[in-house]
Specification:
Elements (H helix, E strand, L loop, with lengths): L9 H14 L12 H8 L3 H13 L3 E4 L3 E4 L5 E4 L6 H7 L4 E11 L3 H7 L7 E10 L2 E11 L14 H8 L4 E11 L5 H4 L8 E10 L4 E10 L3 E4 L6
Parallel strand pairs: 3-10
Antiparallel strand pairs: 1-2, 4-5, 5-6, 6-9, 7-8, 8-9
Helix pairs in contact: 1-3, 2-3
Length: about 240
């Protein structure tokens, strides 16, 4: 079980060894790892080296540590997407071979906030349509969505519309979204949203904030999506310039 020494730092070798063991099924998803003492002994490293490796594996969402309980192998994300690809939540769920669904929480028309005025260049008397939904995959809640659209662009209620909002805007408002400016950030347990998504206390959220633009470069849709971090992963293609 001990790692083979090479020229790299020991903690990097431990990371690779544990990832290999997980990939080969020695440690299965949701399974508790041996204690730090036993694991360090098996790998032939100090507990300090092991802890550094576990810290990085936790940052990478490979493992999850529960205080006073132990360290567990995290489940692999069901849904993956390149952040540079503008895919709807519906498309991501369908691409994973699962059935998308929607639970509607609220739909209302509100006065724009200061941020809304900045985002959409709203007129003084203009209203904003705001919808809160939970997207499901095979009936399981996986994403909490807040969507904002200026009333001049889309006046219909979204209630009981199960499909992608991007598709609805294109079909009913004749606004085809061509690109979005996105910001993604991690978030720990959220008092309101985490229970709605049926998250364990240790399950983090990935928050994706996006301003969507149409073919005329007009801002059409602002969305804030809270993804369960144990279900979704996003990758980025970076090119050297």
């Amino acid at each position: 079980m001990s790692i083979k020494s090479d020229n790299r730092h020991l903690y990097l070798q431990v990371i690779d060894k544990l990832k290999q063991d997980i990939e080969e099924g020695l440690y299965k998803e949701r399974e508790k790892l041996p204690s730090e003492f036993d694991l360090a002994k098996r790998l032939g490293v100090s507990r300090a080296t092991l802890r550094e490796a576990l810290r990085i594996l936790e940052e990478e969402n490979v493992i999850i540590r529960r205080h006073g309980v132990g360290t567990f192998v995290n489940g692999k994300p069901l849904f993956t997407s390149g952040i540079e690809q503008l895919s709807s939540v519906t498309q991501m769920i369908e691409q994973a071979g699962m059935k998308p669904g929607t639970i509607f929480l609220s739909s209302s028309t509100q006065s724009p906030t200061e941020d809304d005025h900045r985002r959409f260049s709203c007129k003084p008397d203009e209203k904003i349509a705001v919808t809160e939904r939970v997207r499901t995959a095979n009936g399981e809640p996986v994403v909490y969505c807040i969507d904002k659209v200026p009333e001049r662009i889309f006046t219909e209620t979204l209630s009981h519309k199960e499909e992608s909002l991007l598709a609805i805007l294109e079909r009913e408002a004749h606004r085809r979204i061509t690109y979005a400016v996105a910001h993604i950030e991690p978030l720990g347990y959220h008092e309101k949203i985490s229970p709605i998504l049926e998250c364990d206390p240790e399950t983090a959220l990935l928050v994706l904030k996006q301003m969507h633009f149409d073919e005329m470069d007009e801002p059409v849709l602002y969305s804030v999506n809270y993804f369960k971090a144990d279900k979704f992963s996003f990758r980025v293609l970076r090119k050297r310039v």
